[in-house]
Amino acid sequence: MLTQPDSLLKYIEDASGLRLPDGHFIDGGFRAPRAGRSMQSEDPGRGEAFADFARGDADDVADAVASSRQAFNTVWLRTPPAERGRILARTADLIRRNTERLAIAECLDSGKPIAEARGDVSGAARTFEYYAGACDKLEGHVFPLPSEYVGYSQFEPVGVTAHIIPWNFPISTAARGMAPALAAGCTVVAKPAEQTPFTGLLLAELLVEAGLPAGVCNVVTGTGIEVGAPLVAHTGIDHVTFTGSVATGTSVMHACAENVTRSVMELGGKSPVVVLNDCDFDSAIANVAGAIFEHAGQICSAGSRLVIEAGIHDRFVEALGKKASSISLGHGLRSPGMGPVNSALQRDKVLGFLDRARERGAEFVCGGHASTDPETGKGYFVEPTIVADRQADDELVQEEIFGPVLTVQKADDAEHALHLANCTRFGLVAGVFTGNFSRAHQLARDVDAGQVYINEYFAGGVEVPFGGNKQSGFGREKGLEGLKSYCKVKSIAARIG
User: Fold this and answer.
1) Radius of gyration of the chain from Cα atoms?
2) Structure confidence by residue, pLDDT tens digits, 387-445
């Protein structure tokens, strides 16, 4: 395992050491794009390109969909569930054996610290492991009909599934969609974000190494316009799983509606972390900081709003500001406290929110400016930022910033905190920190969110269903609910006497 900075940083100078993929992954192997075009992937920690990858188009999408349709009809649909499970289990093992290669590729592509990237790879392995065990446990039901009838249901795979993978958690989100789809008996066509193409391609390669038949998982890289749009609009797609912005998700839903294509939409959030007077103070500080500054706040479920009860407001915000100010910045391969945001575009978007907040007279507890890697003077960095008390209608409260920016909302009491927690159009997750068990579960009951963490932000794992309410989307991923997203139910009733 590479641990020394000099050893790690040689990969910045020589990305070929990673054996990065060349081409799309179609029909069991890498293939050059039909138009022969390529794009460059940037290392956000330096703000410089480090590798080329295939720039696909609708013709490449058509090839991938045809390959997946053929594989579904002739091979994967007929593969016994137990054998599907064995292939997914071998994939989990191969992911673990390739942890360092995958993590370094993820770090260079996305900018996140190497420790976070390793955690994502570990989570991807666990996801395949979990769904490997579920393949042969998709059981239907028997209906209580009169004695002269028998009625039962069975789960069937929906068919060819499309997966639009975001740039913030490329391997995690790919695994979160691919693994249950494959477990259910579906085939996959995945489109990684153009900013982070490589781990999706590497994952497809490992699946085939584990024994997945050719064509069952295809990956096409390129832009959203040239690859993503024709993929979700393709008449050969039976289901779309999309993770991304509300605006793009709305466009995807329109495309799905044209063909009456099923979909799961995870569209981001503006998640509140409710901290009450009787919380474990030190634990809450650590969790609130982790909820917003992990991966520089570029997490759909980031705790981007601190809803803090008045009794501890001043002391808590002061301590949190000191903790945020102590976070080190740097290139992900140097194991900093926080890495860069993903691109110059994302950095400028975040800074735009902060500049407008200054114009409105906002008070900054800490941060609020662009920065760079202190060792190189390069990269797309934003300081860990906390903005003091803002009203419910403020832009920083209402809009998803997708950066290391925490907005504080002061609550009079627990009831007021609930009102503030529910004050946005999003409803992905929420956190609650309190020593009162009853109050914690009352808030969990009443907050409008798809998932609630109590006394530990990001608690749980692949076993826990994940998804949002309101404009955070619909449908659920992870857990057995995620498996059902890739199934259709057939009911059968027969007269027997």
Assistant:
1) 23
2) 999 999 999 999 999 999 999 999 999 999 999 999 999 999 999 999 999 999 999 99
pLDDT, tens digit (0-9, with 9 covering 90-100), for 353-374: 999 999 999 999 999 999 999 9
Q: Which two tokens stand for residue 416?
A: 């007021």
DSSP-derived 3-state class of residue 133: coil
* pTM for this model (two decimals): 0.95
State the sign of the Cα–Cα–Cα–Cα dihedral 336, 340, 341, 342: negative
Structural domains counted in the chain: 2
Q: Which residues pair with 263 in a beta bridge?
A: 240
Which active-site residues does the annotation give?
Answer: 266, 300
DSSP secondary structure of 441-473 = HHHHHHS--SEEEESSTT---TTS-B--EETTE
Q: From CA 497, how far away is CA 495, in angstroms rounded?
A: 6
Domain of 118, in residue numbers: 5-267+475-490
- Backbone conformation region of residue 470, classed left if phi is above 0, alpha if psi is from -120 to 50, else beta: left
Q: What is the DSSP letter of 473?
A: E
From the number of C-beta atoms within 10 Å of its C-beta (0-12, 13-18, 19+), residue 38 rates as: middle
Token pair 């693994």 in the structure block, residue:
179
Same-domain status, 355 and 218:
no
Closest CA to 323 of 370, 286, 364: 286
